Amino acid sequence: MSVRSKRLNFSSLSLDVQAAEEDEEDERSPLSGATDSEIYDGLPAFNILNFIAIGGHLISAGLMIGFIIAYGSLQLPYTETYLQWNPVNASTICNDGSRKIDTSENGPFCIEPTTSPIDCVDGTCSGLDLGWLIISFHLLSFLFQGVAALTDIRDEGVLGYRYSDMIKDSKNPLRFIEYSISAGIMLIAIALLNGVTDINLLASIGVLTAACQLCGLVVEYTEDIRLQWLLHLTGWFQFGCAYGIIIHAYAKAATAVEDVKPPDFVYVIVLVLFLLYSSFGIVQLTELFCKTKCCSKCCDCFSVKDPEMDRCTSIGCKRGCCRTWCPAVRKDKTCNPVYKEMVFVTLSLGAKLVLGWMIFSNVVIVSRS
């Protein structure tokens, strides 16, 4: 293999990128000396994991549907905030947060922000059914992952998409299309439970989350590493804005009553929800670090005798540093797409199920109380 090294400047950050050229079709990868064919065809683990995840989401959705049929669900009403003009006397002092205006024709008004439920009839207001929201989350995962798996039946795939071939190319557009919907659903559910009920904020959370996932999709189809980092960091910014709304609402609720604090386990739940949700983004972050060889720069554990281009995969790395994990996930100087997909599918099976049932437990508690 002939290797050339080029240096890219991304803002003030200097990134080393390895551009590898294959001289032989049967070239050996850094992963245990196996050929590409042996890696992809001999390790169908991501397919097996995908089918397990498909079954897990279907079973989970079925159990939740059965519970709702037996015990009912939990509907959380929307609210909306708007400015209300209240006519007052000239001597009236407006409430905090409002302002007074005197009109020549209609007299003085107090203009104050007002929050109220939407479309209430006989005590029932429009809102979101939390139970069916979580069920739709699992059904979407079941549907998209199932469709992806079925495309392997045909050698040419369906509409140009064949799951195994896409994974070999380190691309999976169906994943991010599904995430753009299901991740928004999950974050809206988390927001509702933390007191974010304003319909405009909920819509903003959904749109920001969808845009975040679509940034991840474009990263997989972009070759320029600088643009990949820009899109990836933009996605984290959008995620931070969406989750920031939730954190602010939770913090406000936790400190609303003086000397009354939520139990410690509530803080743990909020933290766990955040970590589970953000774990999906960590996968692509790791991939970009591998592409830019930042692992060797961050831990600074290579041997000075090693060539600079081999520091991340060299046996000269000290035990416990980059060498213990980088070679296992790298293929031809980039992250191995098979392992990448296995991590995504494992998260779909584990993190999504835990997230779903943690949220659905609120339906269980309210319905049985």
Biggest β-sheet strands, sense, barrel? 3 strands, antiparallel
Principal-axis shape: globular
Poorly predicted regions = 1-43, 294-304, 309-331
Q: Mean pLDDT, nearest integer? A: 79
What's the structural domain tally? Answer: 2
Based on the structure given, which CATH architecture of the largest domain is correct? Answer: Up-down Bundle
CATH topology of the largest domain: Rhopdopsin 7-helix transmembrane proteins
Strand order of the largest sheet: 4-6-5
Give the termini distance in whole angstroms.
67 Å
Order of helices and strands: EEHHEEEEEHHHHHHHHEEH
Helix- and strand-based class? alpha+beta
- What is the CATH superfamily label of the largest domain? Rhodopsin 7-helix transmembrane proteins
Strand count: 9
The fraction of residues assigned to DSSP E strands is 5-15%
Number of helices: 11
CATH class of the largest domain: Mainly Alpha
